[in-house]
TrEMBL record:
Pfam families: BLUF (PF04940). SUPFAM superfamilies: Acylphosphatase/BLUF domain-like. InterPro entries: Acylphosphatase-like_dom_sf, BLUF_domain. This is Blue light sensor protein. Residues 3-94 form the BLUF domain. PROSITE patterns: BLUF (PS50925). GO terms for molecular function: blue light photoreceptor activity; FAD binding. Gene3D superfamilies: 3.30.70.100.
Length: 139
């Protein structure tokens, strides 16, 4: 079994409400736990940035589900690669909302202090998520 890491960005659909994040997280955590997929989700009321880790088949199937999820628009794969270990193995799906704590990291890994994953490289997005996971409390 090969482990892979997939990082993608998407825009929330116009029908997605702030309260929908709880349902999305509960569903993702249940699915990911059953499929041995781990990862981190960042969301700021406009954009999603997510890292998925696990077996190639299960990460690909999870991403396929996301591609067909009407809550996501303009989905862009930022990075996909084989990896030797997971970095978010403690979380079936960690959630990182935007806060004043994330602003300096946005500036470090992108061109502005505003969170916009479309302005980030796949590696920058991944490095930012690693730092977020290590320094900011994850829900």
């Amino acid at each position: 079994m090969f482990l892979v890491r997939l990082v993608y960005a998407s825009r929330k659909s116009p029908d997605f409400n702030e309260s929908d994040i709880e349902q999305l997280l509960a569903s993702a955590r249940k699915h990911n736990l059953a499929n041995h997929v781990t990862g981190l989700l960042c969301f700021n009321r406009k954009y999603f940035l997510q890292c998925l880790e696990g077996s190639r088949a299960r990460v690909n199937a999870t991403y396929h589900n996301i591609l067909n999820d009407p809550r996501h628009n303009d989905i862009v794969m930022l990075d996909y690669r084989e990896v030797d270990s997971r970095k978010f193995d403690a979380w079936s799906m960690g959630y990182m909302p935007e806060s004043s704590l994330t602003t300096p990291l946005n500036l470090r890994y992108s061109g502005t202090p505003e969170f916009d994953p479309y302005d980030m490289s796949g590696e920058s997005a991944y490095q930012m998520m690693l730092e977020l996971g290590a320094t900011v409390p994850v829900i």
